[in-house]
Amino acid sequence: MLPQRVARWRRLALIGLSGALAVSMSACASERGSGGGADDTFVFGAAGAPKNFDPIFNDDGESFRPVRQMFDTLVTYKPGTTELEGDLATAWTPSPDGKSWTFTLRQGVKFHDGTPFNAAAVCFNFDRWYNMKGAAAQSQMIYYGDVFEGFAKNEGDATGSPVYKSCEAKDDLTAVVNLNKAKGAFPDAFGLTSLSISSPDALKKYDADNVTQSGDSFTYPAYANEHPTGTGPYKFESYDKTNKTITLVRNDDYWGEKAKTAKLIFKIIEDENARKQELAAGTIDGYDFPSPADYNSLKDAGNQVLIRPAFNILYLGINQKNNPKLQDVRVRKAIEYAINKDQLAKNKLPSGAYAQTQFLPNNVPGYTDAVEKHSYDPNQAKALLQQAGATGLTLNFYVPTEVTRPYMPNPVDIGGAIADDLKAVGINVNIVQEPWNGGYKDDVQKAGKQDLHLLGWTGDYADAGNFVGTFFGRQKAEFGFDNPQIFSALANADSQVTPDAKKTAYEQASVLISQYVPAIPLTSSPPAIVVKSNIHNLIPTPLTDERFYTVTKG
């Protein structure tokens, strides 16, 4: 499958969960694959509404959660870890120069519409992404743009030369993906949820590429909203927006272990306290990201609070475009010196959270103590603001509402604490609150309306490029800066295919980033997921990409 040296490296990236990989994993062997009772339903409280259900047009956890249950990728990650394993592909082999990847595909797989999964379907998907037309559609392909850097014709945010070159279906079970250059993100990046494989027939039938934009709003076609068609253990049944429920049903033709519950329902409950109340009332069976303050009371009520390892970054974004003072590195450093990250981790985040000095969790190769550190020092912050002629600085600070994320359980409280720290050193802060699904991400990441903003990232795989490369690998409206030295350093790191060379290159890039301060790393924290006592076999993962087909009730 993988060369031995690469396999060893992937194992090193494994996040150890040996003592707590699953809840009640003692279910008898005869139960596996049985499919459970016909009336079984697992109801999960979602923290927000999905944008849509087409994997390629999504980049947030609340959209990915239902998508992951319906779709498969070529490779995936072993449950509870960041280690690769086969999914729709049973083996994957790079060419010596890293510019081609040959996938041996799984036999006997069908899409939900009954059409066969084969190499032609794989190539159809890769060619679809590469040839996507229109600025609106391309702008929503966040992950594709970060990994593949460009399209056949760049019309949206992507400005780079495309990494993707072509795809060949050698036979029904052999697909070869050719690249214009080697990229260190592979093979891990082939497991990205955005790169899930859809039915070519359904994509064509339901006009999947027809994304339109009006002002700051995007409209998605029937495929994305009503007919997502993958190969996964659950199939799409309905999305009742009035009652805020997404209903999936078991795919009885699934190629792997059949789902244990006949139905999987996501009930959208934006308020964390309301999710807790519904769990107590028994109207949901579990929910994600409980407030750290509620852990003990949830356990006392007989629930299971499952803690994931920290594999995320919360950061304070800085947009240099709108306020010239933010283009002065002394001002950006002053902002970092002003923030008491240790208190933030202690008071606003779960137990086990820690203050960050860089944009990588400390268990990802590339993390280094050599970064330039700007620890809490209000006096130094004031001095730098004075030197830069930025006393009395006023900044618009965008903070999301109606959302709970793994890296920020309560963004309004976290934003308030940061604002208080900034005000203490003389920075005037105008907090702008905006709903997560009410335009927040488009305003800060596309339009760049803010001076400061609160955002974060959970790693998709154990590679530094998935963090720092995603943030700072190219010009983005979110940060509004152009630094060819950082872009070049990250491109160099991403081109390395040996673990040692990649690690060293990312360490060097992390040092450059810490000196430039394009944004401020705040904390990394271990998010939790909570389920009732009668829920078994839910496997928590550091990637927060839990698959619910293993879950049983009773």
UniProtKB/TrEMBL annotation:
Q: Does the keyword S-adenosyl-L-methionine apply?
A: no
> What family is reported?
Belongs to the bacterial solute-binding protein 5 family.
Q: What is any one GO biological process for this UniProt entry?
A: peptide transport
Report the leader peptide range.
1-29
Keywords (alphabetical) are: Signal, Transport
Its ancestry begins with: Bacteria, Bacillati, Actinomycetota, Actinomycetes, Pseudonocardiales
This chain's protein is named ABC transporter substrate-binding protein
Q: Which GO terms describe its cellular component?
A: ATP-binding cassette (ABC) transporter complex; periplasmic space
Q: Does the keyword Signal apply?
A: yes
- Species of provenance: Amycolatopsis bartoniae
Q: Name one GO molecular function term.
A: peptide transmembrane transporter activity
Q: Where are the transmembrane segments?
A: none
Record-annotated Solute-binding protein family domain positions? 83-476
> Known SUPFAM superfamilies for this protein?
Periplasmic binding protein-like II
Q: Which domain of life is it from?
A: Bacteria
Name the PROSITE patterns on file: PROKAR_LIPOPROTEIN
